[in-house]
Write a structure and sequence with these properties.
- With 210 residues, this protein is mainly alpha-helical.
- Helix content is 71%, strand content 4%.
- It has a two-stranded antiparallel sheet.
- Helix 1 packs antiparallel against helix 5 and helix 6 packs across helix 8.
């Protein structure tokens, strides 16, 4: 049985992240720095930062979420688009999530040499929201204990990330979470517009609207 793309991404991310834990120079070279990108043309940082994490907890949480949601999205894409095209779309989803999650922070911090960020959270958010559109009424567990429909989780997540981003000074890139999630949602709609109809029909069913 071939290894899934999700597992390959997780293994690659773990290898690079763990190496960077013991090598500050490499960590600094791969981290996301809008200032370095703008003023020193290190455009590779738009991608490489997603394979570097702040610590083991940060790495574990992102990869744990990616494994749980990514495997399902990857299977869905392969089933509906075929093996090769499904893999291609899944990679576009993940890489697009990385890139789009940088949009706000680049505009805000391109002249701030002190700003840096690392982590795959934007890409992981894209994968999670792709899953939510595919299975909007699947039960997810808030704080790993409270069951709520995926659609409700999505609304709470977007509200929370937007609120915390406006609040500021949290040390967490909430803007990346928010934009990554939106990218995952709209990219999946672009691939399968009928999912919107399925979502609306599901909402009508649950609300008993005729």
């Amino acid at each position: 049985m071939p290894v899934s793309v999700t597992i390959i991404i997780i293994v690659l991310t773990c290898i690079i992240s763990i190496q960077c834990f013991g090598n500050q120079e490499t960590f600094n070279k791969l981290a996301y720095s809008p200032y370095e990108i703008k003023h020193r043309k290190s455009n590779y940082r738009f991608i490489t930062h997603a394979f570097v994490h702040a610590d083991y907890i940060h790495l574990f949480f992102n990869m744990f979420v990616l494994y749980n949601f990514g495997e399902n999205v990857e299977v869905y894409f392969k089933y509906f688009f075929g093996e090769l095209k499904g893999i291609f779309y899944y990679l576009l989803l993940y890489l697009g999530g990385i890139l789009f999650s940088n949009i706000i922070s680049y505009k805000r911090h391109s002249d701030n040499p002190a700003y840096t960020a690392v982590g795959a959270s934007g890409a992981v958010s894209a994968v999670v929201f792709s899953f939510i559109l595919i299975a909007p009424f699947q039960m997810l567990y808030l704080f790993m204990s409270i069951p709520i429909p995926a659609l409700l989780f999505a609304l709470l997540y977007l509200f929370y990330e937007h609120y915390m981003d406006k609040k500021g000074n949290t040390g967490i890139a909430h803007d990346a979470h928010f934009t990554g999630a939106l990218f995952g949602l709209f990219f999946t709609i672009l691939l399968e517009p009928y999912l919107v109809i399925e979502l609306l029909n599901g909402i009508k069913y649950y609300l008993n609207i005729k």
